[in-house]
Amino acid sequence: MPVGVMAKKAAIPIRVKYCLYARKSTEQEDQQVLSIGSQIKEMEKMALAENLEIVVTKQESHSAKEAGARPVFNEIVDEIKQKKFDGILTWAPDRISRNAGDLGRIVDLMDQGLLKEIRTFGGQKFTNNPNEKFLLMILGSQAKLENDNKVINVKRGLRAIVEMGLRPSVAPIGYLNSKNKDEKCQSLIDPKRAPVIKEMFEKVAKENYSGRKIYKWLKEIDFKSRGNKYVTLGNIYRILRMTFYYGVFEYPLGSGEWYQGKHMPIITKELFEAVQIKIKVEKKKAYGREFAFTRMLNCGYCQSGITAEEKIKELKDGGFNAHVYYRCTKVKDQDCPNESVSEQILIDEMFPIIEEMNLDKNELKQKLEKEVARYALFQTGVLKQDLPKSKKHKDISIKTFAKYMLKHGTLLEKREVLSCIKSKIFLKDKKLTVS
């Protein structure tokens, strides 16, 4: 073949199929970047003017700071490997990557000849050329450096703020954030809510109010947050544990770094510490031990869970009598009328439910067989008694065994029986129903 013909064939450009990739992070770093819709519109105009073939358009709103964290970008890498397209059209190099991991994946695709070209709206073009790949890596590394510096600067700024005694977040209930940036203190006393917050602490420390009693009291006085919402029980406990109210705060949370705030305290440190003791006692009472029916029952009135407590009565002879009582947690309705009930009554209520159950194909049957075999071994081996041939485990009802375990078994054995009930059990007016 003549040399001129060969040169002519070599000069024919290779047609590149492009994926148009538009990305905008939701973070502050991209506030100056065009919206995704605008990026796509402008790049489509460019593609039309330069006769570029776009085979697919992909977009996502995700930061490119962490490698492998963008699902759409990962799709693009996979589809380049599948040879669905071999070019990327994007707004700028930093739209593709701001981290070394993803940048390395792109360069590796170029080295393999799978990715032929990257084009940007600004006219930059990167191919499998050492100089162009080097420039792409420099631009990607520069974007990463900018991100890293921003993180350092933000942390430095926050550290300077907390060292001034200012808590860098929304003021907790009882305080207001100052709208004046020149104010020496960002958290100002909320004259409407601060007295109520102080009274909350006093009621817990001096009047033995529980969290639930505080919740009920706040509703009675129609106390609401700045967002005009009632304070939840969980937030009540967060307030009672917040050191900010006596003047100090930890930042970041869990760091062990404490700062003296410039704001005016609502309570004293002594009052705060007294409340912490009360909260610990309350938690110990609530979670000190496990009970058989808790987490197994629901309130028949308000659908809340059922909790339990043990009441111990000292007898005249010096002994003690203990009884377990179950009641509605009142999480969904603080005024729920459901009565408390003793564990013995619940067990008696469970017996008719046991009678309706099919336990023949249940693990309880295997347990019964093991118990009978163990008892037979005890009789013959320890007591030296002959076991009547007629006495087999088939003579003992599984339901009778289940009732026995409910009444005399251990906590785990009782729960094993209850776990056989697949339906929901509701407690209402000391009666159990299954739905």
Question: Your description of this structure?
Answer:
The chain is an alpha/beta fold and 435 residues long. The chain folds into 3 domains: 3-149, 3-Layer(aba) Sandwich (Rossmann fold), CATH 3.40.50.1390; 175-287, Hect, E3 ligase catalytic domain fold (Alpha-Beta Complex), CATH 3.90.1750; 297-434, no CATH class. The protein is built from 14 helices and 15 strands. The strands form 5 sheets. Strands 2-1-3-4-5 form a 5-stranded mixed β-sheet, with helices on both faces. The protein has a 3-stranded mixed β-sheet with strand order 10-14-15, with helices on one face. Strands 11-12-13 form a 3-stranded antiparallel β-sheet. A hairpin with a 7-residue loop joins strand 8 (248-250) and strand 9 (258-260). Helix 5 (100-111) runs antiparallel to helix 6 (130-163), helix 7 crosses helix 10 (269-287) and helix 13 (398-408) crosses helix 14. The radius of gyration is 36 Å and the shape is flat. 22% of the residues are buried. Mean pLDDT is 80; it is low at 5-9, 28-32 and 389-395.
